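FORM 7B: Structural annotation worksheet

SECTION A. Query
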Amino acid sequence: MKKQFTLCGIGNPLMDFVTYTDHADIAALGSKPGISTLIDEKKADHILGGISTWSNMPGGSCANTLRGVAWLNNNEDRIQSVYSGAVGSDNVGEDYIRMMKRDFGIIPIMPMKNKRTGFSIVMVTPDYERTMFTCLGACEDFNEEDLDFNVLAKSDILHFTAYMWSTVNQKNAVEKAVDYCRKKKTRISFDLADPLMVKFHKDEFISWIPSHVDIIFGNRDEITGITGSDGDDASLALKAGAFADIVVMKVGKQGCVVSFGGKILHIPGIEVAAIDTVGAGDAFAAGFLYGVLSGRKIDEAAMIANALAASIVTVEGCNFMKCDRNAILKGCVR
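SECTION B. Predicted structure
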């Protein structure tokens, strides 16, 4: 029997404050273009105080992926997404919850903590380079008590990223959710997300992933990190196949290499003129998960993933509304 919720995501809800500036402003803040920096609230208030205008978008890696799936679903009934993560008891948290539901049709199950909602200040220079200053805020307080086991039991896939290993309580919550989901036959999707996260948690990931995860997303550096080996794309993906039923390795402009059932597929990438690569990996995961959840074959899901990732880097921000859905579902970009 089909479950009520097709996709459940647990992540860090970060409101993106996107503003346009120049390199001098970035240098004045002691940063370099293209760098992502974790900051405290005092530093965040200082930066925001110097900004006159910005636009808001619900962000965070997992949320971006769920937004992409919801956009591809286009309000059809077959995919219903639920997103969980901690926000603050403030206007930003209320806006985040409202936007996820109103603008994307995602059901928000998001506890509100007595702390400021997490956010990223995204500063875009004229060359489209994005420099990010992130304050995690309430995200860090998500814990086991915030899990909705009724939702987890009714979900086909649970998706999360390695960023949930940022704090012990977040990690423990995800591990408890995974243990419960495996008993309910809910598939587990895990995005390695960042080579540094793999480096910091390598030993734990190596021992934990094989018995808990069904789908792995990672770029070449991240897959190399968990396998401890290098080599050509096919052999690396095949070795990573020991970690999960499906391993999807992103190889940039060359597309992706997928390991499943002892087979290796290389799906060529799509050549585009990129202006903004932030969110490309999140969009890739969205395309693949949408393909799987909508009943496509693995190669078709990978083609959609390549197309959505290629399309999102041609527009400003992780704004799926600026992409061509029909072209992406055909595995192309125009």
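SECTION C. Observations
The radius of gyration is 19 Å. The first helix runs from residue 23 to 28.

SECTION D. Sign-off
Analyst initials: ____
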